[in-house]
Amino acid sequence: MTTSMDHPPGGDWPIIKRVLANGWRYKWLIVASLGCALTFSGLMAVLMVQLPALIDLLGSAGDKALTPEQRQQVVDGLWNLGVRVLPLAPIAGAAAYGAWWFGQLAANRTMQDLRNRVLGHLVNLDLRFHQDLARGDLLTRMTTDLINTLRLQQLLYGKVVQKPFEALAMAVGLVWVEWHLAVVVLAVLLPTALIIWPLLRRTRDRSQQARDSMERNFGVMEQITAGIRVIKAMGSAEREVARYASSNQELVRANMKLAKTRSQSDAVTGFAVFTLAGLGLMSCAWLYAHDWVKPAALFVFLGGMARLMNLLRDAQRGYSDMQEQIPSAERIFALTDRPSALPDRSTATVCPAPRQRLRFESVRFRYAPDSGDVLRGIDLEIDIGRTVALVGSSGGGKSTLMDLIPRFHDVTGGRITWDDVDIRDYRLSSIAPHVAIVGQEPFLFDDTILANIAYGRPEATPTEIEQAARRANLHDDVLRLEGGLGYQTRVGDRGGRLSGGQRQRVAIARALLRDAPILLLDEPTSALDAQSEEHVQAALKELMRGRTVVVVAHRLATVQHADRIYVLAGKDDLQPGTVLESGTHAELVAKDGRYAELVRLQQLA
Fold this sequence. Notes:
Largest sheet: 6 strands, mixed
Shape: elongated
């Protein structure tokens, strides 16, 4: 994904606005949270305004010259003040609870929707996107970035939105109690904000750098764990550990740069807090010396100023945290904003099962605008109910050609038709039910054998699943699996607990159960030993019966009975990605062209 997509211009506000807009579906929760915050802040202001009278009464109570009547007045005053304040306690408690709880509920519900939308969008993006996006990048977006976006939501609906109300209530209370001193507070706060602002902006930039370093770190880790067999076979464990250590060091440096910026903003805030305290006390002394302020007002003001300093520190930390999380939200929105390269046309219709033929008409294809063509002017025809084989040396685009049939990619020239209708005139989602694919390395989910076979048809009954397994020559192997759980046996990550032949036959059983009319076989036996291949070939023979089959194979013995064989030019030919010749096995051998040459080479081998 491009840098411009990950870091769009416009500053923080567009991202914050979008985050808030996502949560507007739960506007009543947000309104309830803000209402509770306003209520609590208002009660704090009311309490603060009551405090001077309380201090005056306490000062009077310490005077030994009071008459009994005066002393009773002090007691009554304190009692009445307590009676006015005490009923506010449950309201204040409920308001404080509601302000936080409603905000967090809105944040978590919004993130639940966003996570669902991200994954839904991700699985509907074109195959090219998934091939190009680095694994570490995807892992970072789906884990760290989503977690940090949740934190951003929580900050927005918590500290960032609610704390200013309390700070405003404190400021109003301070002005009410003694406006001279409030001017001193503002004189310190405004320059502090001007100093902290650029530091907070730098926090965002360095947070993005730390995210990029983490993405690369994840990528290295994923490659090492995925290639552990090769690493052990090559004895390169120490080299890979050193490679990861270098990536880890880069991540540490990026995180420490971020920590340095956070520390600087904390230092400015700490300096401002003590400056505010010092100037506030000096101002109180000067005002009291000139008899411009009463002792009660001084005490209340100092207490309110202490609370305001805490709010200032909370606001700085909250906004710094928010600056750290904004880059993650940018990356998530960049993902959800990316359109699929395979949009449905406005006039697209539901794709019916093909009844006559599939046809490639002068098809050209390239993976990127600035790359060369993989397929060049391909013309071929696949009659329904027939088996067509694609052969040739590597780099000829055989697998790419097969991927175009279910529209994993769109052609860049020419067209592909099903019964003379351009495949792009059909809804993409309606094409998949007509196609089943068995590849060289079938992917199995970390679930039971039953669930993996039923994946293409979840509503299938256990009896239907067992019948598919029997037809795939798999049933007996399932019953012999360790643990005696049969079809409830978990296959492990990517089917790691099964042999290669068993994994392949699970994929064949899945295709049998799906019962799609078009079958695509991409080197389904190339990675198997002779005994496993024999079992899989028997299963494939059952799977191919009565279907339209397109098969890619390097072992020509597996395709000699195909109704038609197309030989594609490979990367070492003058025009790779073109059809060199086509015909039946006998016709091509008789032509003594490229196919006959490949047959002789394999016979020699």
